[in-house]
Amino acid sequence: SGLLSRLETSAPTVRTLSSSKSFSQNIPSCLWKLGRLNHVAIAVPDLEKAQSLYKDVLGAQVSEAVALPEHGVYTVFVELGNTKLELLHPLGEKSPIASFLQKNKTGGMHHICIEVDDIKAAMTGLKEKKIRILSEEPKIGAHGKPVIFLHPKDCHGVLVELEQA
């Protein structure tokens, strides 16, 4: 009985989290909701080579290139099971992708795109939280839906695109 009583008195105390507060109570309520990851955009210096990699080498379904003059890019979408990759190539001298590729000669991740259920409400809420939006109004993106971009310095170094779902 001496060993058993020593074990009972030296057993560590186990602490449990109080279940009275749920984790979701710590999340501020918004008038808009963040949705799924729509795509990851990759800037590429050679669009044909990049298309070939994903189509011919990796076997993905790859779209034709589409020019988006308002954004200064050519886009190609690579279909994946749960999301897409967007290959971006410069269109015109003022393309933001051209300046990106000057700094990153071999290309690289440019931005992520996340869907939102209400882009106008998202803009209002983000402005209230001092997140800079790179345009005054949404533009029509590659999927024909309104999009905005959030300043990377306000998003931990990541350029974030929000797209109306």
Give the helices and strands, then pairings:
Blueprint: H1 2-10, E1 34-43, H2 47-57, E2 61-62, E3 66-68, E4 73-79, E5 84-90, H3 96-103, E6 108-116, H4 119-128, E7 139-140, E8 146-150, E9 160-164
Parallel strand pairs: 1-5, 6-9
Antiparallel strand pairs: 1-6, 2-4, 3-4, 4-5, 7-8, 8-9
| % residues in beta strands | 25-35%
Order of helices and strands: HEHEEEEHEHEEE
Number of helices: 4
CATH class: Alpha Beta
Structure write-up:
- This protein has 165 residues and is α+β, with helices and mostly antiparallel strands.
- The chain has one domain: 2,3-Dihydroxybiphenyl 1,2-Dioxygenase, domain 1 (Roll), CATH 3.10.180.10.
- It is 23% helix and 30% strand.
- It has 4 helices and 9 strands, in the order αβαββββαβαβββ.
- It has helices at residues 2-10, 47-57, 96-103, 119-128; strands spanning 34-43, 61-62, 66-68, 73-79, 84-90, 108-116, 139-140, 146-150, 160-164.
- Strands 1, 2, 3, 4, 5, 6, 7, 8 and 9 form a 9-stranded mixed sheet that branches.
- A hairpin with a 5-residue loop joins strand 7 and strand 8 (146-150).
- The radius of gyration is 23 Å and the shape is globular.
- It starts with a helix and ends with a strand.
- The model is unreliable at 13-24 (pLDDT under 50).
